[in-house]
Predict the 3D structure of the following.
Amino acid sequence: MLSQPLRGSEERSMFRWPRAVFMASLPAGGLVTSGFRLALTGTPGTGKSTVARILSERGYTVISVESLAREHECLGEVDPADGARSVDLDMLHDSLAPGWSSPPEHPLIIDGHLSHHLPSDAVAVLRCSPDVLEARLASRGYSAEKIQANYEWELLGGAWNERERGSAWIEFDTTDSDVVSVVKSLSQWISDGFKPASPGSVIDWVARMEE
């Protein structure tokens, strides 16, 4: 069984599969003519916060999973072992359901490694070579245990292992790509109506290591 990725000080999941699956407010691959919700997910260290910051500077509304959990009182107690706060996704799921069943007035980016569990019209997964990711997390001061957990999570596919049908999904490799290029590609995907609705193939780090 895959474990959830661990973060340093923001959020850790008390994850249980939702009791009901959200319906996206837009059809996958449909023309984007109004507001939408896009989940920006990926293993910690893949560049989500940086991409989210640039999108915010370009006019998008960005909100973090932690902020949503705090707003809806779905944050657990601080774990004295690592300073992380858990997020009750079942409770957050149920709290968001009534208001998130229709498109928002303006585009909304949901930032966080748990964001793909929340209702969205599209999901963008940021990926990074596990070896490079390991170095990034070490530079942040992550413990050896957390580095190993996140290394393994990314190595084995990360968020793709929890994909649910209904929303468009895409991934971007941030290993060697500069963040501006990633934002440009993501913006183009949004402009194209989230097409393609799924990549032809998904990055397989294990296969690449065996080459």
Remarks:
- Strands lie at 12-13, 37-42, 61-64, 75-78, 85-87, 108-111, 122-127, 168-173.
- Residues 8-31 have pLDDT under 50 and may be disordered.
- Residues 12-210 form a domain with the Rossmann fold fold (CATH 3.40.50.300).
- The CA atoms of residues 150 and 194 lie 28 Å apart.
